[in-house]
Amino acid sequence: MINIAICDDEEEFRKYALEVVGQICQKHNQPYWSDYFSTGEDLLKALEGDGASYFDVIILDIDMPKMNGYQVAKRINELGIPSLMLFVSNREDLVFQAFEYRPFRFIRKNFFELEMKLALRKIFEILEERRDKKSIIPCIGGEEKIQHSDIMYIMVLHRKACLFMKNDRVLEMRGSLRHALELLDDVKIIQINSGCAVNCVHVEGYNADSVFLDNGVQLPVSRARMKEVKIWIRKYWGKKTKTES
Q1: Is the pTM above the cut of 0.70?
Q2: Contact of 203 with 234, CB cutoff 8 Å
Q3: Does residue 169 sit in helix, strand or coil?
Q4: pLDDT tens digit string along 121-142?
Q5: Are strands 203-206 and 210-213 parallel, antiparallel or unpaired?
Q6: Rounded to whole angstroms, how far apart are CA atoms 151 and 121?
Q7: Contact 76/85 with Cβ under 8 angstroms?
Q8: Is 190 helix (H, G, I), strand (E, B) or coil?
Q9: Beta-strand runs (E) in 1-96
Q10: What's the rounded Cα separation, in Å, for the pair 189 and 1?
Q11: In degrees rounded to 5, what are phi and psi of residue 193?
Q12: Are 140 and 174 in contact (CB under 8 A)?
């Protein structure tokens, strides 16, 4: 499921964008749900707070009143949300300034359908790669080729990063948790406290200070990381499709 947000102050363009994005996703057999926002403030409200939403793709108009697309993108980057942002505008002179906010693409409204097709095709490839990566891990005792979906969680024990796998195996790596996360480079595996990270696809629930995995393991979440953890958990629980009427 691909989660897509469209933020534009023009209602007519929002409807058009929703239609185009839906047609492209259907053509490529990509399940999706979409949400829409008429202001940058409304989008940020959806991304923050206890009921935070997560979007794989954010289609963001640059030229909006009150809070423009650059200001919204800056806040999204500050929140550490790794959504793929697509800036849209009729003003091609804004493209160079847009690079400062690390967008995935700059889409011209006059060529929206064509350029969105190209952008989404590449995004589909990126998200597919993210879903279930494979890595060769330098474990103690030799290298291991693993599928990321088999990782339940990673915990630092006795100065080793231990990968607790779905088949009850435990793989040990030399180095820190940070080193293990950098080596895996998988957005689904997120740090929940100073010595532990979980694979979001195996999270079944959470409360104010812990997450619960589908094998019955309960792990503590630090207060500083709880907001980010909630966002990622909700991403993998999925959402119902919302369309504009």
Answers
A1: no
A2: no
A3: coil
A4: 999 988 876 666 888 999 998 9
A5: antiparallel
A6: 28
A7: yes
A8: strand
A9: 2-7, 32-37, 57-61, 84-89
A10: 18
A11: -160, -175
A12: yes
For residue 202, which of 127, 149, 156, 240 has the smallest C-alpha distance? 149
The rounded distance, in Å, linking the Cα atoms of 146 and 141 is: 15
DSSP-derived pairing of the beta strands 84-89 and 105-108 = parallel
> For 237, which DSSP code?
H
| Single-letter amino acid code for the residue at 53 | S
Distance CA 84, CA 114 (A): 18
Give the Cα separation of 68 and 145 in Å (integer): 45
Burial of 183 (0-12, 13-18, 19+ CB in 10 A): middle
pLDDT digits (tens, 9 = 90+) for 24-72: 999 999 989 999 999 999 999 998 866 677 899 999 999 998 899 999 9
Among 27, 34, 28, residue whose Cα is nearest residue 5: 34
- End-to-end, the C-alpha distance of the chain in Å comes to 22
Contact status, residue 225 vs residue 191, Cβ threshold 8 Å: yes
Helix (H) or strand (E) holding 127: helix 112-131
Strand extents, DSSP E, the chain = 2-7, 32-37, 57-61, 84-89, 105-108, 134-139, 142-147, 151-157, 160-165, 170-174, 189-193, 196-199, 203-206, 210-213, 218-220
Q: Cα–Cα distance between 165 and 167 in angstroms, integer?
A: 5
Tokens of 208: 């104010």
